[in-house]
Amino acid sequence: MGWLRLRHTLTVAGVKEESGHTTPARNKIGIYSKHGKDTAPATTSLAHVFQQEDFPFQDPSMSDSDLPYIDPSIVSFVDQQWHSSSEDASRKHLHVWLVIDNVVYDCTQFQREHPGGIDVIQSFVGQDCSWQFWRFHGREQMREYGRPLRIGRTSGIQNRFKEPPRYVGLSTLGEDW
Asked: Is residue 170 part of a domain?
């Protein structure tokens, strides 16, 4: 595929064009051939380009450290796409990724099977939900249901909620007791 070339490159700040000028990333990805004819429209939506990427499920026996690295900007893009789309019909074709302990899980198909319902999973699309996951699930559920859903590892994705403290044992009852 040496005859195809990326017209613009995507950076965290936006799209860096051949001229070196960076513009916002909205609808600026396109390819062209050396033959002088575009093989795709000049303004292809980022969501469409993202859908063409391949993020396959990884072998469950593979260790987390050996998983392919997924840049946090890609995971953030999944988050932005999901939360900027309000209609169920437009969300139907979007990825449903969760991050647990810096491992990315593709729950797109699994969300319908989740015993807690799809709302729980959809509320964390493209985000870290580590402590929330471990409050309701154990290693057995992760091994049986989670490991087959792994697509990669990432870093720098923060949980948007502060973990509340866990209380163990009895609290003091005060002087009336």
From this structure: no
Look up residue 141 and give its two tokens: 């559920």
Q: Do you know the residue count of the chain?
A: 177
118 and 129 together in one domain:
yes
The 3-state DSSP class for residue 30 equals coil
- The percentage of the chain sitting over the pLDDT mark of 70, rounded to a whole number, equals 64
d(CA 56, CA 110): 15
Mean pLDDT confidence for 76-101:
86
Range of the domain at 132: 54-153
Q: Give the amino acid at 173.
A: L
Q: How far apart are CA 21 and CA 15, in angstroms?
A: 8
- Say how far apart CA 116 and CA 114 lie, in whole Å: 5
Same domain, 44 and 68: no
Task: Classify each residue of 129-143 as buried b or exposed e, where b means 16 or more C-beta atoms within 10 Å of its C-beta.
Answer: bbebbeeeeeeeebe
Same domain for 25 and 92, yes or no, is no
Residue 14 has a pLDDT of 52
DSSP secondary structure letters along 105-123: EE-TTGGGT-TT-HHHHHT
Q: In whole angstroms, what separates CA 120 from the centre of its chain?
A: 15
Q: Are 15 and 28 in contact (CB under 8 A)?
A: yes
